[in-house]
Amino acid sequence: MVSSFGSFGSESSQNSTDLQIVQKVVADLSNASKILVQLNRSSLHISAKHYGLEQSIDVMPGLIALSKRSTTPEEKKNKILGSGAYSIVKKAHTPERQPLARRICKIKPSDQVSYKESKKMIETLQKLKGLPGVIDLLGACEYEKPDQTKVVVTYYPRYEANLFTILFRQTKRTLKEGQKLDLANQLLTALENLPGAHGDVKPENILIDLNKNKLVLIDFQFYRSYEETEAHRKGSTWWCAPECFLDQLETITEKLDVWPAGLVLYYLFLGSLPGEFPWQKVPKNSLYEYLKKNGYSQFFK
Fold first, then answer.
1. Is-contact 51 22, C-beta < 8 A?
2. What is the span of the domain harbouring residue 256?
3. Do 178 and 293 share a domain, yes or no?
4. Residue 43, C-beta contacts closer than 8 angstroms, at least 6 positions apart
5. What is the pLDDT of residues 143-202, one digit of tens each?
6. C-alpha span between 205 and 177 (Å, rounded)
7. Residue 100: count of CB within 10 angstroms of its CB
């Protein structure tokens, strides 16, 4: 079953996972948490590819996550739940087959900013745990590839779809007026209870459980608390507030989320296609420079 070395531990100083440890974990997953404690590690990653296993194993405090190894392009495609500029989200599950969402962020050795942001997002979600409308962080695992690429993996409950998919891509299920009102209330309540600004509110970052009509915010990569003084990193240009295009946004307030929340509610209730507003007709990759030069006021004349 185990064919070779090659998996890398959760700390950059750890070059490889001992083969005997891998064999113990694979032989008895119920004992994996005890092994993690004995090793004095925050997490343990066992690669299916490097060890010739059917599935990769991530062991974290309170969570064991399994991810089946893909052998065909179709299997790889079916595992993907979503992707963005900074990460990709794939399917995973617990040994008891509980569905999980696995967010994978690969960071080059030279990109210390992204690494810092990924670590900060984990700390943020730990602080915000239990707040209404905030995705529940179930576990986090970090390891290093042979080329020194850092991989930061976070695990969450798996939701049916994001709001973008429901509004713009699904045709079989439509939201009733009562559902929309309930979701709108959940979104505004979630934003009201945050001790800071999410910074990247958009339909893709809002997950929905249609069976329970439950909404949660995800992707806190750009979150800033009210106490922080560092410059806000721009979120998605189509959705972020006009003040995000200032050279220096010195004060972080909840107002940063009001603009994109309003846009989300517009699409939620009116059902228009994305790109309805004038600035959304400007190509995303050039919008930032365009607005710095021309400003937002031109769109409201």
1. yes
2. 161-300
3. yes
4. 10, 36, 58, 59, 60, 139, 140, 141, 142, 143
5. 998 889 999 999 999 998 999 999 888 655 688 999 999 999 999 999 999 999 998 999
6. 21
7. 20
Indicate if 151 and 179 belong to the same structural domain: no
In a domain, 83, yes or no: yes
User: Tens digits of per-residue pLDDT, 217-265?
Assistant: 999 988 988 777 666 666 787 888 777 766 555 666 778 899 899 999 9
User: For the whole model, what pTM was predicted?
Assistant: 0.85
Dmax over CA atoms of the chain, in Å, equals 70
Specify the amino acid at residue 121: M
CB 22 within 8 Å of CB 2? yes
Does residue 253 fall inside a structural domain? yes
User: Residue 89: CB partners within 8 Å, gap ≥ 6?
Assistant: 80, 81, 82, 83, 101, 102, 103, 104
Output the domain CATH number for residue 102.
3.30.200.20
256 conformational bin, left if phi > 0, alpha if psi -120 to 50, beta if neither: alpha
Which pLDDT score is estimated for 85?
76
On the question of pLDDT at 7 being above 60, the answer is no
CA–CA dist 119, 191 (Å, integer): 22
